[in-house]
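May I ask you to comment on the folded chain given beneath this request?
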Amino acid sequence: MPGAQGIWVYLVVALLLFPTGLVFARLGRAFPIDGGPYLYARAAFGNHAAFAVGFTTYVSALFSTATVIVGLVENTSAAHGGDSPAARCVAELALLTVLCIALSLGLRLSAMTWSAVTILKSLPLLALPIAAVFATTAPSSAPRTIAPGVGPAALGAALPVLFALQGFEVVPLPAAQVKNPHRNVPLATVGSLVFASLLYMALQAACVHALPDLATHELPLADAARVYGGDTFYRLMVATTSVSALGIVIGMLAMTPRYLAPLGHDDALGFRLDELSARAVPLRAFAVTYVLLFAMLVASALWGSIGNLLALSSLSVTAQYAVTAMALFKLASQRQANLSPVDRWPAPLALLSCAVLACGSSKLEIPIVAAMVALGFGARWLGRRR
């Protein structure tokens, strides 16, 4: 979606996701315990549906985490003139190892690190649209129309934007570790979605205003910063994008094992994956996640980038959203978990939104997601046989 039309894509996807954010907020309040989507699906539909949701979500989180690690190291090395695949692979594995060790020490340390990185990356990102507002000059050829685009291109752009705006569904995962979860989990769930949506729209608008040929820029945020503030702002934005990616990696590595931990029940994968340390960390789930990510990063270095799996990750998350919406509708209809029929109203809107977003997938992505679920049930069957 060229130029200013991208602003409309962010707005439309944000509006489509808002009912899903309300679904997660209400269920997070009703279930102030760890587990997230797996827990909701199990309460509503039983173990089989819960396992399908839990395993698909976990594999999607694995691919997303590996992709962001690869992107972070590639962009950082390119900015410093490094281009050796072997060196990048070593850096990726070292980053994975250091962060996994640090995050396994406890959720409090993870939260403090995550918050510090979020503040460091947010200030320059907020400064860019502010600079655009107060800019006295702009390229004369900057686009002046922001008419929304329609057709397959808009649907195809929706899944990458969904990858940018997702993350609010992670908030209920560690609900048992949250102070006053009945209030803070819903506020953080909806608040994070709204803030991210507004920030991305502002960034897109700032880039469009500064760069008429936006599609040709590999570093659009940094190049737009150079237009508004010169080389100093450019260098600051280059550092900010790396810090931003680091923040995403920290968040994903902190939460991805917690997608696997609920599958540690005997009716799922077992292997005591849900066993918590004295600091409320699922160490077995952390160990499995580390090994799998290590193997994925090595495979990426040997056989190519996995960046094309971003859309697959978004589609998997969309399936998770749909099942969670159905779980809210059923639990509220049956008045379970202190829910009433009034609480189910966001669920149909969320399901409709998921259907619209799924239309942006390719012919191969839906079969791949189905194959992922089938592999999960195969692993579960083998575990039970053992």
Notes: The chain has twelve helices and no strands. The CA atoms of residues 57 and 317 lie 6 Å apart. Confidence is low (pLDDT under 50) at residues 140-147. The chain has one domain: 5-385.
